[in-house]
């Protein structure tokens, strides 16, 4: 359930990548609870999730099947969302793939695939919403990064490279499009306890070790990330742009 109401998000046209599963699904529901008009893309079928939203909230998000590495398909999806809900004024670049890999095993094909998902798609989604946001008098973009690169984590160097790139890209776009009242911020979650994380990587020992690193000794949940996204999307943060917001229970220290 939402912990705050952001009145300006009611009827906002929101577009989310990867919005039908994991953190993305929680974000979609969070915007629906605020009264926003939500469209999202995902490669896998999210019809069941949309059914759940319809049953729970009486509102069905617009699901557009799309592989975000196909830039033309991603651009077309954003255009479809605009036709359905009006020009997109909130973009959440959430979709990512943190598949583990060893540096010495990385091929050029794997590198290009990883960057296409984790960085390239973010840029072209941003590019696709700029004109509509400008015409609407402004907008907000939230680009998901991760504390992984800030921690210097090993095990997925292509992913952490993209994380750092997202932060740099967000700052440059914030500078370029600030005069159009388009705000661009990055959001870096810590280890969020999604079903995927629990299935693949969470063990009692690993979780205990990570909680020891956090200042706040509680598990990070999807709603904690939703609340931050809603804040960055709303006019509550109207003078905040070009920033990286970290939501990780105090694992890393910024500044």
Ends distance: 31 Å
Structurally, the number of domains stands at 1
Question: Uncertain regions: pLDDT < 50 for 5+ in a row?
Answer: none
Helical amount: 40-55%
The number of helical segments is 9
CATH class: Alpha Beta
Query: How would you name the oligomeric state of the polypeptide chains in this document?
Result: single chain
Q: In which order are the strands of the major sheet placed?
A: 3-2-1-4-5-6-7
CATH architecture: 3-Layer(aba) Sandwich
Descriptive account of the structure:
There is one protein chain. The protein is an alpha/beta fold. It has a single domain (7-247), classed as 3-Layer(aba) Sandwich (Rossmann fold). Helices cover 47% and strands 15% of the residues. It has helices at residues 22-33, 47-57, 71-85, 108-136, 148-151, 157-177, 195-200, 204-213, 222-233; strands at 13-17, 37-42, 62-65, 90-93, 139-144, 182-189, 244-247. A seven-stranded parallel beta sheet has the order 3-2-1-4-5-6-7, with helices on both faces. It starts with 12 loop residues before the first strand and ends in an 8-residue tail after the last strand. The mean pLDDT is 95.
């Amino acid at each position: 359930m939402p912990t705050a109401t952001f009145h300006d998000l009611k009827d906002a046209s929101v577009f989310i990548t990867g919005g039908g599963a994991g953190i993305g699904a929680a974000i979609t529901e969070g915007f629906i609870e605020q009264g926003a008009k939500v469209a999202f893309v995902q490669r896998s079928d999210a019809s069941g999730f949309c059914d759940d939203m319809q049953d729970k909230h009486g509102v069905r998000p617009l699901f557009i099947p799309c592989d975000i590495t196909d830039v033309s398909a991603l651009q077309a999806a954003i255009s479809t969302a605009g036709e359905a809900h009006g020009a997109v004024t909130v973009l959440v670049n959430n979709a990512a793939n943190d598949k583990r890999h060893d540096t010495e095993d990385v091929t050029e094909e794997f590198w290009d695939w990883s960057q296409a998902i984790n960085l390239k798609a973010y840029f072209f989604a941003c590019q696709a919403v700029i004109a509509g946001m400008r015409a609407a008098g402004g907008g907000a973009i939230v680009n998901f990064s991760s504390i992984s690169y800030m921690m210097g984590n090993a095990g997925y160097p292509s992913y952490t490279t993209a994380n750092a790139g997202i932060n740099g890209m967000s700052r440059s776009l914030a500078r370029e499009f600030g005069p159009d009242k388009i705000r661009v911020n990055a959001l870096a979650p810590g280890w969020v306890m999604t079903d995927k994380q629990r299935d693949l990587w969470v063990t009692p020992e690993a979780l205990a070790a990570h909680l020891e690193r956090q200042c706040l000794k509680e598990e990070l949940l999807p709603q904690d990330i939703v609340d931050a996204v809603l804040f960055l999307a709303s006019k509550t943060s109207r003078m905040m742009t070009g920033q990286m917001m970290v939501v990780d229970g105090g694992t890393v220290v910024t500044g």
